[in-house]
Amino acid sequence: MNLRALRSLVAIQDSKSFVEAAQRLKINQSAISMQIKALEEELQVALFDRSVRPPVMTPTGIAIARSAREILELLEGIRETAENTEALTGSLMLGCIPTATIGFLPNVLQAINRRYPGIHMRVQSALSEPLVEGVQHGTLDAAIVTEPAKLPAGLRSEIIMRERLALISAFDAGTPPTIEAILDANFIRFNRHAGVGRIIGRFLASRRIEPDEFMELDSIEAIIEMVERGIGIAIVPERPLESYRQRVAIRPLEGSDAQRNVSLIFAETNANVPLLEAILALFRQASGQG
């Protein structure tokens, strides 16, 4: 089985696009298409539903992509074990926004434990604003946050990933709604005091949309539960939705104002800066944008 085809399959799942996957892997789109076609012929299954445009991954394709990801991670672990990596040791207190604890953070911690077993991590979850304060006051070594519009003096910000917003609705509502449909539905708002909540607010304001704010929550799991049951619709970050694609209808939003930067912030004078710089690449790799 061709490992390049497995990497292409995983890249397409992460980017939701053959074009973006080709750009990420730095190969031609036609090459990716040929790899996927060869993989389908070898496995004798359809990995994508090509009756719609753009093609979407079939349930079988999703299951195979999950297994492909595990295979690639095992191979990466073998390579890392074989490398003569620097023996970094130390303890880090890391803050993390709740939306990054779904999917992303477990991948990060696995990668750090595998690559740098001498680094001991402790993690606490909070909204971006108190996490920034924690880094500023020294109670946290670093934090994964929605990048603030203005960073306090002395703090350094490194972008880990750029993440789109997505509009979600119940499956029984038919096709995913347009932005304008927010005006005719109960809108479940993401906490306006959260970093991503502010971005969502600015996005709606830029389009002069004033939704009927039926509910305001700061838990993405709670928001998804409400939406799944048809109680309302919502705008949330796209990445945490990966595990919920069989539960709600998802429409990614386009535009520079419909995305956020998720960043690692830390004080430039922190004694653990060498550790943080060493693991920064692992953060980006775990995001799929490294």
TrEMBL record:
One of its GO terms (cellular component) is cytosol. Keywords: DNA-binding, Transcription, Transcription regulation. The keyword DNA-binding applies. InterPro entries: HTH-type_LysR_regulators, LysR_HTH_N, LysR_subst-bd, WH-like_DNA-bd_sf, WH_DNA-bd_sf. GO terms for molecular function: DNA binding; DNA-binding transcription factor activity. It comes from the Bacteria. Residues 1-58 form the HTH lysR-type domain. Belongs to the LysR transcriptional regulatory family. This is DNA-binding transcriptional LysR family regulator. It comes from Hansschlegelia beijingensis. The lineage of its organism: Bacteria, Pseudomonadati, Pseudomonadota, Alphaproteobacteria, Hyphomicrobiales.
